[in-house]
Amino acid sequence: MPSSAGHRSPATVDRRGFLKTSLGASAGLLAAPAFATWLGAADAKAATGFAAFVDDYKSNVITNLTPETNAVVRVLGGMSKVWKTGDGWNTGRVLDREVLRANMRYCAHVTQTRTEAQAKEAFLYDRQHQSYAMIGGLGPLAGLYKAGAKAVTSITTAPEGTPAGKINDTLPADAPAGSALGAGSYDSDLGLVAKLVDTVRGPFASGNPGKFAFQYPRPWRMNEDSEVVDTGTKDALGYPVYDSDVVVAPQLLRQRSENAQEDGGFPSGHTNAFHLAGLAFAYAVPERFQELVTRAFELSHTRIVAGMHSTVDVLGGRIMATALTAATLADPANAELKTAARAQALAYFTQRTGTTADTLYDYAHPGAGDAYADREANARAVGPRLTYVLPRRGRKDPLTVPKGAEVLLETRLPYLTAAQRREVLRTTALPSGYVLLDGFEQWGRLNLFAAADGYGAFDRDVTVTLDAAAGGFHTADSWRNDIEGDGGLTKRGSGTLTLTGHNRYHGGTVLEAGTLVAASPNALGEGDVRVTGGTLRAAKVLRVRGSYVQEGESTLELALRRNHGPALTVGRRVLLGRGSVLSLRLDAERPPVAGTTVPVLSTGQLRGRFDRVEVDSETLRAVPVHTADGLSVRLVRR
C-alpha cells in the first residue's frame, strides 16, 4: 500500500463532530467547534513566535490539529481565509465566496467534460502507488530505474466501467524476487534512492492532520457554494447522493470512502504524495528535475479530473509537500542518506547508459520519445496550476524565502552557494496576493519549475563559478529565465554557462574565465559587457546595449550568415585590448562564400583591434575590414 502521506491514519469522529485519535480518550478530545475559533481568527502569515517549519515539521501528527501545535496546519493557514470549519464535517461556512464558488465551478466543468481516456488515467493514478507513478518523470531513465530499483506495480490498466469492489496496488504474483511497490526495494542497485523517497514520505508527511483540522469536504459532496446537501437518496452502489455538479469518474465510484466524517478533501493526500516523491527523485536525479516537477503537477491535476479533489485541495497538497520535502532534506539526520542517494543514482545511470556526469543530461533529454521533452509545453502545463482559480489581490510584497528551502535546489544548482540558491527561489517566486499561498512562511509562493532555470532577477551583483572538473552541472548549465534587476553578472571558472532569456538586467556582464553563451540576442541584458578571459559565444546574433570591452587572453565567438546583418551590435563604444581574439563560425544553413564581405560588428565607436581573427573553415580565411560602422571581414580562399 502507498505510504501514510497519501492515506488516512486511524481515527474516529463521533456523532457530535468531535475527533478522537487512535491514542484513545486518554489523549484527549479536540472539539470541532474549537477549530472554527482558531481558523477564523488566526492569521498564519502574520503569526509570530513559531519555530521555522523545517525545525518543527515533526509536529505533523494526528494528535496535533491546531496551527499552534502543528507546523503543517500552520503553513496551510491560508485556507482559514476562505473556509471556516464548522462543528461537524458538513457544517463548515464559506468565508470567501468568490474563491470557493470558482473552485467548485472549475471542478464541475473539468469532470463534466473529461474524456473516457482521462477518466481511465485518473483511475490509474488514484490506485497506483504514487511513488511508482512519479518514476515516469524520469523519461528515458524510467525503465532503467524500475529495473535497478526492483520497483513494480499491479495497477497498469483501468477497467472499462465501475469495478466490482475496491482495488489497491499490491505486489504482482509474477514480480521478480526482491521487488517492492512504490520507489522500489532497499535491497537493490538503487536502494538508497528508494529509501530517500520513502524517508521524504515518512511518518511526519501525512495530510491527515490537515484534513481533520480543516474539514473541507470532497467536491462531489458539495454544491457550487461549498455547502453539503444530502438529498436523502442513494445511488445504485449504495452511496449517499449529494447535490453536486461534480461527477466522479465511473472507475472510481467504488473507491470512494463511505465515512464522510473521516474523508476530508483539503489537503489532497495524493497530491502531497506525488510532490513528495517527485522532489525526492529530483534531488537524486537532478538531470530530470524540471520534468519531475512537471509530472507531479500533471498527476496532481488528475485528482480534479477524477472528481475526488478540488483545486484548493490540490494547492494545499503541493504547499505542504514543498515544505515537508525541504524539511526532510534539511534535517541533519538525513544528510548522509541524501548524499549517498544522489551518488548512487549518478553512478548507476552513467554505468548503465555509458555516459559520464557531463553527458548524462543529454542522454536524459533525447527529445523524441520523451513525454516531457518540450520545455515550453511543460511550462504551459505547470503555470496555470500554480494558482488555479485563485484571484490575485493586494499589493506586491517581497518574499522572505522560508528557512531551509534552498536545499530543494542543492543538486540542481550545485555550483551556487546556499545564499545564492535562496536568491534564485526568491527571484523566481510567485507574487503575493494569492490567498492560499500566503500562509505561514509562504511556501506556496515557491515556483520550483522556474527556479530550476536559474535566477529571475539580479537584484544585486551575482558572481557564479562553474568548475568543469567537478562534472555535471558544474561543467555546463543553462539559465532560461528572463532576468531583470539592477545587478549584474560575473562569470568565473572553467565551466560553461548559457543564458537563453530576453534579459533586462542593468548591472552589466563580466566574463573572467570559462565560456559564457548568449543564446538569445538580449541574453546579456542592458548594461556594459566586459570580457577579460575565456570565451563569449553568441549562438546567432547578439546585442549589447552599453559598451563592449575585450582584453586579455579572451575570445569572442560569433556566427556568420550569408546576406545577414552584423553578428554583434553594440549600442555604445567597443574597446579591444591586447590578447583579444575573434573566432568566426560559419552558419551551417546559409554560410557566406569566398569573395564576400560580411558585417561582423556594428558600433558607433571602435578602438583597438583583435590580435587574431579565426574562421572555422579549412578553405577560407577572414581578412578584417574596418569601416565607419565597425568591423566586417572579407572571406578569401586560403
Provide a quick synopsis of the model.
Strand 1 (11-13) and strand 2 form a beta hairpin. The chain has 17 helices and 27 strands. The chain has 638 residues and is of the alpha/beta class.
Q: In terms of per-residue confidence, which ranges show pLDDT below 50 for 5 or more consecutive residues? A: 1-47
The structural domain count equals 2
This entry's quaternary arrangement is single chain
Assign the structural class, choosing from mainly alpha, mainly beta, alpha/beta, alpha+beta, or little secondary structure. alpha/beta
- What share of the residues does DSSP label as strand, in percent? 15-25%
Strand order of the largest sheet: 9-11-13-15-18-21-24
Number of helices: 17
Mean pLDDT: 92
User: What is the radius of gyration?
Assistant: 28 Å
Which sheet architecture does the biggest sheet show? 7 strands, parallel
How many DSSP-defined strands? Answer: 27
Task: Report, as a whole number of angstroms, the end-to-end distance.
Answer: 72 Å
Task: Using the alpha-carbon principal axes, give the shape.
Answer: elongated
Helicity range = 25-40%
Keywords: Signal
InterPro entries: Autotrns_rpt, PAP2/HPO, PAP2/HPO_sf, Pectin_lyase_fold/virulence, TAT_signal
Pfam families: PAP2, PATR
Protein name: Autotransporter-associated beta strand protein
